Amino acid sequence: YTAQSVSEAVDVLKQSEVDYILSDYMMPMQNGLDLAKIVRNKMNLKIPISFLTAYSLATKQEINELGVQKI
After folding, report:
1. For the whole prediction, is pTM greater than 0.90?
2. N or C: which end of the chain has fewer CB within 10 A?
3. 33: closest CA among 8, 17, 12, 56?
4. 1-15, 25-39, 45-59: which range is least confident on average?
5. Strand-by-strand arrangement of the 68-70 sheet
6. Are 49 and 69 contacting, i.e. CB atoms less than 8 angstroms apart?
């Protein structure tokens, strides 16, 4: 599955069984960290998440607290 934004990704997660999330950190409107917070805190999913990006403003602590791997 693919999504162009956090809201699209959330829709995919609500409708489909997903084993792994590979997300760019930089996305329109919200970023990958916002997606990870929604997945972990609001949806309570334990799906493995990795970020792949050329540039990131997220702190390592924030990423680690959500159990996200930064590639």
Report:
1. no
2. C
3. 56
4. 45-59
5. 21-23, 49-51, 68-70
6. yes
